[in-house]
Amino acid sequence: MHFPEPQSFYNSEHWNNSERMAEADAIGFTSEKPDKMNSPLGKPDNSMVYNMNYKQKGLCLILCMETFHKDLKEKGVGARNSKNDKKELESIFTEMGFEVRLEENKTADDIENLLTDIAKEDHSGRGCFACVVMSHGDKDFFYASDQEYQIDALAEPFRGEKCKSLFGKPKLFFIQACRGNKVDSGVVKDAGDLTTTACKIPTECDFLYSYATPLGYFAWKIPGESWFIQSLCKMLKENWQKRDLLQILTRVNHKVAYDYNKKKQMPCFLSLLTKELYFFHKTDQD
User: Fold this and answer.
1) What is the pLDDT of residue 245?
2) pLDDT in tens, 146-189
3) What does the CA dihedral 141, 144, 148, 152 come to, rounded to 10 degrees?
4) What is the pLDDT of the chain when averaged over all its residues?
5) What fold is seen in the domain 57-181+200-284?
């Protein structure tokens, strides 16, 4: 097939716009507008960004377990110290515009009631919900002060239409707890918004789970603080006004993986978010 030379293709005065566009389609260009998932660089499509233009960015619930009931102590679940982690979490989430609530040494029933009550609150003036858990744990649970509590149960009161004022908004869970007893010794690296149109969305939509460590592994800490929470707070502080959450969590992964040398730890996250999440109102920045 013979194609016109570039100069004649674009500059021939006898071609009208429709003819030019038809020829462009024929050789691989398209006249269709780009979809919202593929907006040109430098011109972000705000329909793919969660709306954070609220009076309050969200509610941040911190569940911190430091002392445990006698029967758990007898099983080897000892006291823990999270003094510095609590301080840093309260500081950064307050700075980002969250209401912070710290709840300490709660029983499993207490936690269930807390979450249920929060889900019943009116979140219409908030952009999202965040929950940070700090405790001992194993595999798919962490320890409340009296017994095991399934990690999956944290999100249950917020699924589907159970919490309508958070429908379509991000629900974020950060878990600082062991998920097993394997130790990662590392390897040596060679130096070389909701629309007005009615729609149905998945029940698990708009959740994010961030873990200190993958399933099966130990999570490291020193008295007063943990590698994961300290790295999370530091990366949020440095990046929350310029990067989206997934970029920030990737930097958390990098910091924990490379900045601690005696033993190794690899945080991970599972994102069920459907848009980019910035803790500032991105439409005001573009």
Assistant:
1) 98
2) 999 999 999 999 998 889 999 999 999 999 999 988 888 776 65
3) -40
4) 84
5) Rossmann fold (3.40.50)
At position 252, the amino acid (one-letter code) is V
Please state, in angstroms and rounded to a whole number, the distance separating the CA atoms of residues 224 and 83. Answer: 5
- Measured CA to CA, the distance from residue 56 to residue 41 in angstroms comes to 30
Quote the CA–CA distance of 282 and 52 in Å, as a whole number.
8
Question: Which amino acids are annotated catalytic?
Answer: 136, 178
- Rounded distance between C-alpha atoms, residue 28 and residue 266, angstroms: 44
Report how far residue 82's alpha carbon sits from residue 87's, in angstroms, rounded to the nearest whole number: 9
Domain limits, CATH 3.40.50.1460, in the chain: 57-181+200-284
Instruction: Find the helix packing angle between 227-239 and 83-95, rounded to 10°.
Output: 20
What's the predicted TM-score (pTM) here? Answer: 0.80
Q: What are the Cα distances from residue 17, in Å, to 6, 10, 41, 90, 182?
A: 16, 10, 26, 59, 65
Pairing of strands 207-211, 98-104: unpaired
* pLDDT tens-place string over residues 77-104: 999 999 999 999 999 999 999 999 999 9
Distance (Å) of CA 272 to CA 51, 80, 156, 217, 269: 17, 31, 15, 23, 10
